[in-house]
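CO-FOLDING WORKSHEET

Operator: S.A.
Ligand of interest: zinc ion
Run index: 382
Mode: holo prediction, single chain
Checklist:
[x] sequence pasted
[x] SMILES validated
[ ] output reviewed
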Amino acid sequence: MKAVVYQGPYEVAVSDVEDPRIQDPQDVLVKISTTCICGSDLHMYEGRTDAEPGIVFGHENMGVIEEVGSGVTSLRRGQRVVMPFNVACGFCRNCRAGKTAFCEVVNPGFAGGAYGYVSMGPYTGGQAEYLRVPFADFNCVPLPEGSEHESDFALLADIFPTGYHATELAGVRPGETVAVYGAGPVGLMAAYSALLKGARQVFVVDKVADRLQLAERIGATPIDFSRGDPAEQITDALGDSGTDRGIDAVGYQATAAEGEEQPAIVLNQLVDTVRPTGGIGTVGLYLPSDPGAPNENAAQGLLLFDIGRFFERGLRMGTGQADAKAYAHQLRDLIIAGRAEPSFVVSQQVPLSEAPDAYARFDKREPGYSKVLLHPNADLPA
Ligand SMILES: [Zn+2]
Ligand SMILES: [Zn+2]
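OUTPUT RECEIVED:
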């Protein structure tokens, strides 16, 4: 089958790889209808992880079940499903607590597994015609038949639950104020989720104009950090000592206004942005190893985080990859009920063959490139 295969920094190719097959009675094979390119794929694409050439990308996958293992009880051939990006067992200590991003079973020696991602286990990615899904009864989220809401449902694999998770980590409650750093797809989903939860004002910080426009379109207040210190802009606008909650949807490849990489800048800006005793949710990625880091400490994940001021302000912070499964069912039902339409972030829908070009353009943050959906099998949606 055809799949998007990492070749080395700044290079992916659509190549022939071995067809996946049922390896365990609890597996299903899914024929992929939609699979998304994610900002976290770009960390691998840019050579900023330990990813080796040959890895098939794709952790945001949905499609129709093609083949069902003999031990699968709740799914059938022909069923439409979306797969939360965390591969999880459903029965270990963390899975039992809903913390499926930290499954202790699927990736021995490491807490957490995912499709098509470096160090996340032997699970081939879904930017391909077919995907093998282990522990399928747990890892497939059933969807209504047909093709309705395809783009909305595809975002249940990662970015909608991840954005929602950020608001949970930060502790967002109705009536509160929230600052979201990063207006990429995850930041926009975090802002959207905060608004769904009843936040009274949500600021979104970025410097890419069309991303800030998207933030404004959903009712958030855009803050352009190239025009001055974002924490100051926000506290000035609020007339208060800071927002109740803050969200980091940027991660370790954060840059200062002039474009220079400063891995801890967003974390420190959040310390300045959130009011004393407020909460911070960090879903932007931080890694213990960065081959392209701007300095020796950052190469080992050691950043200059202002713990002194963080402590002084009595802040708390939640971190880590999202437990997408924990939210996917409820968020799916919001979409079905017409109460949420996360696909406003989708900017391009292209066949799998165009993935190399789409990666290059998304990586350059070309205007109008916010979220790219790939369609490996079906015709493109109208
Ligand atoms: Zn993703
Ligand atoms: Zn588990």
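REVIEW:
The first strand starts at residue 2 and ends at 8.
The radius of gyration is 20 Å.
[x] output reviewed
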